[in-house]
Automatic annotation (TrEMBL):
The keyword Oxidoreductase does not apply. Keywords: 4Fe-4S, Iron, Iron-sulfur, Metal-binding. It comes from Candidatus Berkelbacteria bacterium CG10_big_fil_rev_8_21_14_0_10_43_13. This is 4-hydroxy-3-methylbut-2-enyl diphosphate reductase. The gene is ispH. The lineage of its organism: Bacteria, Candidatus Berkelbacteria. One of its GO terms (molecular function) is metal ion binding. One of its GO terms (biological process) is dimethylallyl diphosphate biosynthetic process.
Length: 286
C-alpha cells in the first residue's frame, strides 16, 4: 500500500503545542513545590495525551465540590475560561495557571470590545464547548449562541450585532449562517467577525488541495471523534474522496483497504504526531 504522510498535514497546532509545554513545565514546578495540579477540561481531545498528563500528576476535579484548594495549581486549557470562573478559582484558593491559546484570547478580546461598544453578540458555535463558554463569559454571558446554520433565519435582532465564530468551525458554514442572519434582519447592522483559527482553516484547505491534485484513493484522518476541527477536516475531505476518521491504530483493519491503494494520512490539530506516524507505519504494512 502506498502511504502519503506529509509534515504539514498532521501534528499539533501551535496553540496546543504551547499549552502542552506549559503543562510539562508545570509538572516539574509542582514536583519541586510539592503541589498537585488540577484541571476540569481536557487539554487535548486525545486519550493518549490525557493519560500522559495524568501520569505526570494531573487530576481532574469538579471545582464546585472544592471549598478550599489550599494553594494547589489549576491549569486552564487552550480553550480558555471566563473571567468569572478565574475569580471563582481564586476565591477557592487555587493558584491559577493558564495554557490558553493566544488565538482564543484574541477572540475573547474581540467579543468583549464589541460588547463594550454596544453590540449584541451572536456566537456561531457549540454552547457546551469550553471555548464558547469562555467567550460568552467575556461578554457577561449575554451572547446568543447558535450551532445550526438555519437558526440564522430565526433570530430577531434589535440592535447592531457582532457575529463571532468558534475557532474550529468551517468558514463555509459560518458565512452561510451570517448570510441567513442578514436575510432575517435586513435593517440591522451586522458585523461578521470571522474568528476561525487560521491554522485549522489552513490545514483543511491544504489537505483538500492536495487531494484534488494527487488523487489518493482514500484519506485517513487521525483524531478524536469529539474534536471539532478533526470532524470538520474529515467532513470536508469526505466530499472529495472516501475518508475514514480513525482515533487510534487499533481501529485499522487490513480488510478495510484494497490492495495497491494510495492512502493519504492527515490529522486534526489535537492528534499526537507519534500516533499519526504509527498509523502510517501500520498502513504501509497492509
Ligand atoms: S486550533 Fe487554533 S485556536 Fe485552537 S488551540 Fe490550536 S492554534 Fe489555538
Amino acid at each position: 500500500m502506498k502511504v502519503i504522510l506529509l509534515p504539514k498535514f498532521y501534528g499539533h497546532c501551535p496553540g496546543l503545542k504551547r499549552s502542552l509545554k506549559i503543562a510539562d513545565d508545570l509538572i516539574l514546578e509542582a514536583e519541586k513545590n510539592g503541589k498537585k495540579i488540577y484541571y476540569d477540561v481536557p487539554l487535548a481531545h486525545n486519550e493518549e495525551v490525557e493519560k500522559k498528563l495524568q501520569k505526570g500528576g494531573f487530576q481532574e476535579v469538579n471545582i464546585e465540590e472544592v471549598t478550599d484548594a489550599k494553594g494547589q495549581y489549576f491549569l486552564i486549557s487552550a480553550h480558555g475560561v471566563s473571567g468569572q470562573k478565574i475569580e471563582k478559582l481564586k476565591k477557592k484558593n487555587f493558584v491559577v495557571k493558564s495554557a490558553v491559546c493566544p488565538t482564543v484570547k484574541h477572540v475573547q478580546q474581540i467579543a468583549q470590545n464589541d460588547y463594550v461598544d454596544g453590540y449584541q453578540i451572536v456566537i456561531f458555535g457549540k454552547s457546551t464547548h469550553p471555548e464558547i463558554i469562555g467567550v460568552n463569559g467575556s461578554v457577561d454571558d449575554s451572547a446568543t449562541i447558535v450551532a445550526d446554520v438555519d437558526e440564522g433565519f430565526k433570530i430577531k435582532l434589535n440592535k447592531k450585532t457582532s457575529v463571532i465564530c468558534q475557532t474550529t468551525l468551517s468558514s463555509d458554514k459560518y458565512d452561510e449562517f451570517v448570510e441567513n442572519l442578514k436575510k432575517a434582519n435586513p435593517k440591522t447592522k451586522i458585523v461578521a467577525r470571522n474568528t476561525i483559527c487560521p491554522i485549522v482553516e489552513g490545514r483543511v484547505q491544504m489537505c483538500a488541495a492536495h487531494v484534488v491534485e494527487e488523487k489518493p484513493d482514500i484519506v485517513v484522518v487521525v483524531g478524536s471523534k469529539t474534536s471539532s476541527n478533526t470532524k470538520q477536516l474529515a467532513s470536508k475531505l469526505a466530499k472529495l474522496v472516501p475518508t475514514m476518521l480513525v482515533g487510534s491504530e487499533k481501529e485499522l483493519e487490513k480488510s478495510d483497504f484494497e490492495k495497491n491503494t494510495t492512502v493519504l494520512v492527515v490529522s486534526g490539530t489535537s492528534a499526537p504526531p507519534e500516533e499519526v506516524e504509527r498509523i502510517a507505519e501500520k498502513l504501509k504494512n497492509f
